[in-house]
From TrEMBL:
Signal peptide: 1-21
InterPro entries in the cross-refs: AB_hydrolase_1 (IPR000073), AB_hydrolase_fold (IPR029058), Meta-cleavage_hydrolase (IPR052370)
Record-annotated AB hydrolase-1 domain positions: 55-168, 207-257
PANTHER family: SI:DKEY-122A22.2
Pfam assignment, any one: Abhydrolase_1
Keywords from the named record: Signal
Organism, scientific name: Gossypium tomentosum (Hawaiian cotton)
The protein's name in its UniProt record: AB hydrolase-1 domain-containing protein
Length: 273
């Protein structure tokens, strides 16, 4: 067995932290209330000046490793153009809480409180997979603060039948075995579904009334949330929504084809409404 200091995970973690640091972001811990502490990578407030006014972009990760492992290429790409905020959602990474709440709404409220603590008044939100559910609820709760929304590979329109089909594709009994793997076998299943080659209800859709612009980005080979869900979501969200499909990618197009993904998102966020 290799000594711990040669661990690939440890070495790659060091590399990721350097990537975030060289992008102008620092690791921070913010107490949003008496129960919850959020860890995030964010611009160093001591190094910002009035001349550095840029729009703000909040990146919300999906199930799996902490945010640092999921948004590295986006942090590097978007930092020159945006004030980028990359938090660990509660129960992930180094974010902790004493609360017994476990819902996507609780996550959304926590992220909204985080942005208030950081004194960010308006911001774009991009969420992938589970993070897309959180982004949806943030836009619904704070339409006056959330500007543009990017939903990447996130079946926020998921129905019970879609849930059952996912379990069949993965050959497991519980969604948690896919989304929160605890064994090497479960991790391989998640990887097989996510890389190319406990949601049971559809949220209320008020997108048309509360959100000015929505971008949906999907991999054409997504096995977790199949492509048909992207088209259905586009229909539900109406004419204000743009759908972009990235060929030859699955559930994590932001990693599998980061160049294409980043340019699509940048053009959307920087373009006129």
């Amino acid at each position: 067995m290799a000594p711990s200091f040669l661990s690939f995970v440890s070495l790659y973690g060091i590399y990721l932290r350097r990537c975030f640091a060289t992008s102008g972001l620092t690791s921070q811990f913010i107490d949003i209330d008496d129960h919850t502490t959020i860890h995030l990578w964010a611009p160093n407030p001591d190094h910002q000046t009035p001349q550095q006014q840029k729009p703000s972009l909040l990146l919300l990760h999906g199930f799996g490793p902490s945010a640092m492992w999921q948004w590295r290429r986006q942090a590097q790409f978007f930092s020159p153009h945006f004030h980028v905020y990359v938090p660990d959602l509660v129960f992930f990474g180094d974010s902790t809480t004493k609360s017994k709440e476990r819902s996507e709404v609780f996550q959304a409220v926590s992220m909204g409180q985080l942005m208030e603590k950081l004194q960010v008044k308006k911001y774009h939100v991009m969420g992938t997979s589970y993070g897309g559910f959180v982004a949806y609820h943030m836009a619904k709760l704070w339409p006056e603060k959330v500007e543009k929304v990017v939903i990447a590979s996130s079946g926020v329109n998921m129905r019970k039948a879609d849930n059952m089909e996912l379990l069949q594709r993965a050959n497991v009994e519980n969604v948690e075995e896919i989304m929160l793997p605890e064994t090497a076998t479960q991790l391989r299943t998640l990887t097989r579904l996510a890389i190319s080659r406990r949601f049971t209800m559809v949220p209320d859709f008020f997108w048309k009334d509360v959100i000015n612009d929505v971008l949906i980005v999907w991999g054409d080979k997504d096995q977790i949330f199949p492509l048909k869900m992207a088209y259905e979501l586009k229909e539900l969200t109406g004419k204000k929504t743009r759908l972009e499909i990235i060929q030859n990618t699955s559930h994590v197009p932001q990693i599998e084809n980061s160049t294409r993904f980043n340019n699509i998102v940048k053009n959307f966020l920087c373009g006129s409404s």
